[in-house]
Amino acid sequence: MGELKPGRVPIAMVMTSFEPGGTERQMIEMVRRLDPNRWAVHIACFHARGTWFRRAAERAASVAEFPVRSFRTPLTLRHAWEFARWCRTRRIAVVHTTELYSNIFGLPAAALARVPVRIANRREINPDKTPAQIAMQRTAYAFAHRIVANSRAAARRLELERVPRRKITVVPNGLDLRAFTRPPAPKVRLRNVIVVANLRPEKGHDVLVDAAANVLLRVPDAKFNLVGDGPGRDALIERVRSLGIQDAFTFHGHRDDVPACLDAADIFVLPSRSEAFPNAVLEAMAAGLPIVASGVGGIVELIADNRTGLLVPPDDPASLCTCLLRLMADSSIGSRMGAAARGEAHARYSFDRMVADLDRLYVNELARRGALPVENPQLAAS
Predict the structure, then answer these.
(1) What are the Cα distances from residue 272, in Å, to 170, 208, 306?
(2) Residue 118 to residue 113: CA distance in whole angstroms
(3) Whether residues 286 and 183 fall in one domain
(4) 23 phi, psi to nearest 5 deg
(5) Domain that holds residue 317
(6) What are phi and psi of 20, to 5 degrees?
(7) CA end-to-end span of the chain
(8) Is residue 265 part of a domain?
(9) In the chain, at which end, N or C, are there fewer CB atoms within 10 A of the end residue's CB?
């Protein structure tokens, strides 16, 4: 773990776990990329294990595990008290919580510890949240000074939940562009379709399966690659078999080499029913793939229809089929859209830009509350 240097501002990133996912990837990159001469980044989490945890921990000033299993037990209150004491002991100046459960757990406890700056994340639009969860999170937001939404769609959702607009800041996700430096090779025939997403109902894999059945009637050599895992896997496999199209589908499970998977594909699809700001679309853009995606949430902030991709209504297999057939019939359309998407991604969505935006937010909030350390001239001058 990183050596603690005098004058660095202690900041705590609060996470539930380090399971592979878009939110986790974004926060791990924050831990690894914040300037170590300015910030001492501590990690507080519910579950401290896994490859992704080790990747974050090697750059952290310290790691603390608060093994919350349920919010329905009094033990959680004890963990919250311990977290507050941990914040006081380390003189944490900024607490940044990352998603629903860490928001609910970390924000009130950080307020109890009188942490000067408390920041929450909002990275989804509640496709599967219960009214009780939404209410608990809204209560937790009352303890936050700022709520970082990763898209305008997520920001609008916050406003609908009666979060004051003055608290909301939009910082789009970032991407490691170094993994996408090689321009895509020209392709004459577009046949390999890929979707990168956890296998959950809101991702709309079932819509792709139904669309694929019709695509294969016209283009029998088309192939469909599903990268990701999740609770919907068995049902999807059964659906593919029931339609007799199992030979055209490959379920790859979780992969750590997503850039290589995208490089081997011709068309990227994301038929989601709800999205805040999908990292998978960012990666497909950076890889220069033509994209077909649902026109929902933050996707419409990423994809300009007919310029950097094709947008379709959610839950519409017929429209998805039409767009896939259009790209398969004329590879020049895909080449043009892929090149435009790649240029957009490389110009606007780097991790460096995201980290700089959040660094600036931390400094501004510390300054607003008179909590900037005078012994760190680098920070005060930023």
Answers:
(1) 22, 10, 19
(2) 11
(3) yes
(4) -60, -45
(5) 177-348
(6) -55, 125
(7) 26
(8) yes
(9) N
